[in-house]
Amino acid sequence: MDLNTIWFILIAVLFAGFFLLEGFDYGVGMLLPFLGKTDEERRLIINSIGPFWDGNEVWMLTAGGAMFAAFAQWYATLFSGFYIALLLMLLALILRGVSFEYRSKNESPSWRNLWDWSIFIGSFLPALLWGVAVANIIRGVPIDADMNFVGSFWGLLNPFGLLGGLMFLALFLFHGAVYLALKTGDPIMTRARATAKKMWIAALALVVLFVIFALAGTGLYASGAAYLPTLIAAVTLILAGWFVSKGRMGWAFGMTAATIVFVTFTAFAGLYPNVLPSTVNAANNLTIYNASASQYTLKIMTIVALIFTPLVLIYQGWTYYIFRKRLTLEHEMEY
Q1: How many CB atoms lie within 10 A of CB 128?
Q2: What pLDDT is attached to residue 328?
Q3: What's the count of helices (H) and strands (E) in the chain, helices before strands?
Q4: Among the listed residues 136, 138, 148, the one whose alpha carbon sits nearest the alpha carbon of residue 77
């Protein structure tokens, strides 16, 4: 296994970690205005992700930085082609971060309601746009012989791309509802569990539709490498619904986490060795070789990653351990 393949796998792991952690984070943000009936309940919901949300976003920055350093041409083509979508995502994330901080600055119900809905928007748009982006990467985008994106923003909003966006929304809402049912006490816990049962049906239906359309209209399953992670994702998603029905929310959260991870691995396994297929001409595909940095750069990056990645994982794991307890309305609120 060469360094190009190793870094492709590492970037896949980084994105899987990002979607896993930020997935429940986005899900909770989208559910905030609906599951929180009073200000105290909404504050409790925000507190459930308060220690984690900004740390979860670091995975996205790390994945983007690794892509830039290891596969600069992939980064350049992708970010220039998806510029408007990524700008909208960035603005939504800024709005989301500001909302968490500004919500408690005024006790006016209208003020807090404004920022609660801003958290919803700041969670909804990135979740939708990430799904659209992943679906378009799988489907392929217009790339010319000079590795330039020659499409448009509106071209990304094709039926398959929008289906990917809806699938991500459903998976993240399901993941977030299970997290809230695990992390909070009644009455939010009961509402979250009921929501999780509904979102499981939506997530399962959209995943099945996505796989059908991917089989029919993309090269995702051409090499055969994507079948195994797809099967694992399907099994874990079914088990997640079963555990929710039995009230075993810890197991359910483990299964939703595994589903999101293996959905991500499906996309990367199906792409390999491509990183961004071209719909203009297969000869224009960006691969782990023609989009790669030098071998020396990859070697230096590997050494740095081996040193610092375990430290980051230990620190973030410690954070989740410290704030592991279930929250109830009797706890002191921070927001």
Answers
A1: 23
A2: 87
A3: 12, 2
A4: 148
Lowest mean pLDDT among 16-30, 116-130, 217-231, 297-311: 297-311
Residue 332 Ramachandran class (φ > 0 left, ψ -120 to 50 alpha, else beta): beta
Cross-strand pairs, 276: 286
Q: How many residues does the chain have?
A: 335
pTM: 0.94
Rounded Cα distance, 8 and 292, in Å? 10
How much of the chain exceeds pLDDT 90, in percent?
85
Give 64-115 pLDDT, tens digit per residue.
Answer: 999 999 999 999 999 999 999 999 999 999 999 999 999 989 989 999 999 9
Q: From the CB of residue 3, how many other CB atoms can be counted at a distance below 10 Å?
A: 18
Q: Are 288 and 8 in contact (CB under 8 A)?
A: yes
Predicted confidence at residue 331, as pLDDT, reads: 62
Residue 168: name the closest of 201, 212, 124 by CA: 124
Measured over all CA atoms, what is the biggest interatomic distance in the chain, rounded to whole angstroms?
Answer: 62
| Domains of the chain and CATH, by start | 3-322 (1.20.1630.10)
Q: Determine the 3-state secondary structure of 278 from DSSP.
A: strand
Residue 100 CA to its chain's centroid (Å): 19
pLDDT given for residue 35 in this prediction: 96
For residue 61, list its beta bridge partners.
none
Residue 290 region by backbone torsions, left for phi larger than 0, else alpha for psi between -120 and 50, else beta: alpha
The residue with tokens 């959260």 is 253
**β-strands 286-287, 274-276: how paired?**
antiparallel
Beta partners for residue 141, in sequence order: 278
- Eight-state DSSP code of residue 150: -
Beta bridge partners of 287: 274
